Each structure stands twice: as C-alpha cells, then as structure tokens.
Amino acid sequence: MPLIHYTLAMLHRLPWLLVLFRIACGPTMMACAVAQQGLACAVLLSVGVLSDTFDGIIARRLGVATPGLRTWDSRADVIFWVSAIIAVVVLRPDLIPSLWPPALLIAAMEIGNHLVSFVKFRREASPHHYLSKAFGLGLWLLFGVAFVTGAPGPILWLVFALGTASQLEALAITLRLKEWRCDVPSVFSLRR
C-alpha cells in the first residue's frame, strides 16, 4: 500500500513539476542560444510548450487545479516566454528590428492587464482563456521558426494580431469579472 500512496502523491505533484520544468527550460534555452544551438532552443521551446499544455489538463483530471497552481502557471509562462525572447535576440540579433515593436506592445498590454487586476482584485490576472492558448501556440510556431531558420516572415504579424486580441480579451475579462477568478474560457462565457 505505501507504494500506491507514494505514487498517487507524486502524480498529484506532477502539475507543479511541469510548471517548475517550464521555468527551468527558460534559462536553459538562453544558455543554448549563447552556444548558438538554434535546434536545441527549438526543442526546449517545444517541450516547454508541451509542459504548459499538459500541466493544466493533468491538474484538472487529478482534481488538484488550484488558484495557486494557476497563478504559478501564469508566472512560469512569463518567465518562459521572456527567456524565449532573450534567446531569440541572442541567437538571431538581426531579428531585433522586426521583433521589438510587437514584443514591446504585447508586453506593455500584459503588464497593463496585471495592473488592472491588482487594482481591482489585489491579485494577478490569470484568466487562461482560449485566445491566450492560441497565442501560445502561435508563439511556439513563431519562435521555433525564428530559432531554426532565422526568418519568421508573415508569421510574425499573424502572431502579433493574435497576441493583441488575446491581451484585449484578457483585459475585457478582468473588467467584467465581479470577483477574481482563474480559468475563464472567454469574455463571452461571463454572465452579465
């Protein structure tokens, strides 16, 4: 019996381990960029995105999805994607002129959303809405192409549009919520 209890306890920790793994992928990705290992960066990016996909699914299936886990999932996302941006800049500095304006705008919108949530609820925003998931997949494609080929092309502007829409919806969710919640699928899922 103790082995079953130990196994169940470890299973319940798996979502947290996936969040911590994603946090660790960020600095490792940056180190690979310094070493000019674009393919390694793309692999770390991919496993990091997969960990982000499965941490929530596993947490919900096991019944261990808590606001604390969702908040740290959001923090891990920020650390991971900021690390990915730094890795792209280090590995592909020629992309800086085309990447920095949209990245700066999306970052400013993200910070603004968190500020609005702090003012309104005294907590970080953590809606995990569908558009944010689509934006994450778009970023995966954009950064993967940038790491491997160094030429993201029109993907950049498609992902930028998706990111802008995601941030606007996150703000709308925060403004429409009467009390803080995480895991809000869409602004349209909120009752008036």
Q: What does the model show?
A:
The radius of gyration is 17 Å and the shape is globular. Helix content is 79%, strand content 0%. With 192 residues, it is mostly helical.
Distance between the termini: 50 Å
Largest sheet: none
**Rough outline:** globular
The CATH architecture comes to Up-down Bundle
Low-confidence parts: none
Keywords summarizing the entry:
mainly alpha; Four Helix Bundle (Hemerythrin (Met), subunit A); single chain; 79% helix
What is this structure's SSE topology?
Blueprint: H1 2-34, H2 38-62, H3 67-91, H4 96-121, H5 130-149, H6 155-176
Give a brief outline of the structure:
The model has no long low-confidence stretch (mean pLDDT 89).
